[in-house]
Write a structure and sequence with these properties.
259 residues, 6-stranded mixed beta sheet, 7 helices, globular
């Protein structure tokens, strides 16, 4: 059975149709890239999986059960804009999610519970390459470091599904290559299922096990809003080829750094 199933999903705002007739199954531990033109409903698609939006028609199932219309701990999200708290240092940024989960009324843990949570936050910072930066505030970080911190925030509660909305679009090419290697390693090590929206076609094919293209099958020049997007292409990829490409890219970047 698929981890996620979308059955005849429609999203409409008044008389505007954003998505229509979306029927998909997403397997656990897959890495799905979502591409398509601007306005094709890619971010709307992610918000549906996150639980921020509910479909106008149709049903989304998680493990065969209707998806709850809220963002639970089983789902994490990282946006293009660094979604970190500027007034908290890196460790407290990551700790915040654990404290809210453990003490939803006060947002603070104490005693042994706090020490355990701090150890988990430190371990996650180490996993994303920020092990020595727990005391650093976001304003003192580079863009790549801030995005690593945002990923640590999303993963510290061990979600099964990680949603990425243009997470590397604001980074320069060198840092983006580092982030590609990071997210690939975390995907493997933590057994994640990932759905990532990107405008970068090469990024989509380099990282994913599957590439979905959202676009409109039907067009009416007199009423363009009356038709929504759906999955027009659905391509399964050989992950071994992508892994070999990332390894070659890594060697190339390291060689360039040594010159």
């Amino acid at each position: 059975m698929s981890m996620l199933s979308l059955r005849n999903i429609w999203v409409e705002y008044g008389d505007k149709v954003v998505l229509e007739r979306v029927n998909l199954d997403i397997a656990e531990h897959s890495f799905v890239s979502i591409v398509g033109p601007s306005g094709a409903g890619k971010s709307t698609f992610l918000r549906l999986l996150l639980g921020q939006e509910t479909p106008t028609r149709g049903q989304i199932l998680l493990d065969g059960v209707p998806l709850r219309p809220e963002c639970g701990p089983d789902r994490g999200v990282v946006f293009q804009r660094y979604s970190v708290f500027p007034h908290l240092d890196a460790r407290r940024n990551v700790l915040f999610g654990l404290e809210c989960a453990g003490a939803p009324l006060t947002g603070r843990l104490f005693g042994r519970a706090r020490r355990v949570a701090m150890d988990e936050a430190d371990a996650m910072l180490g996993a994303v390459g920020l092990g020595d930066s727990g005391h650093v505030f976001p304003a003192q970080m580079s863009g790549g470091m801030q995005q690593r911190l945002a990923i640590a925030q999303a993963l510290v509660k061990r979600p099964r599904l990680l949603l990425l909305d243009e997470p590397f679009g604001a980074l320069d090419p060198g840092i983006r290559a580092d982030m590609h290697r990071l997210i690939t390693r975390l995907w493997r090590e933590q057994g994640l299922t990932i759905a990532m929206v990107t405008h970068d076609i090469s990024e989509a094919f380099a990282l994913a096990t599957r590439v979905l293209t959202l676009d409109k099958r039907r067009h009416d020049p007199h009423a363009p809003h009356r038709y929504g997007a759906t999955a027009v292409y659905d391509l399964a990829l050989d992950r071994r080829v992508a892994a070999e490409k990332l390894a070659v890219d890594s060697i190339t970047i390291d060689d360039n750094d040594n010159n």
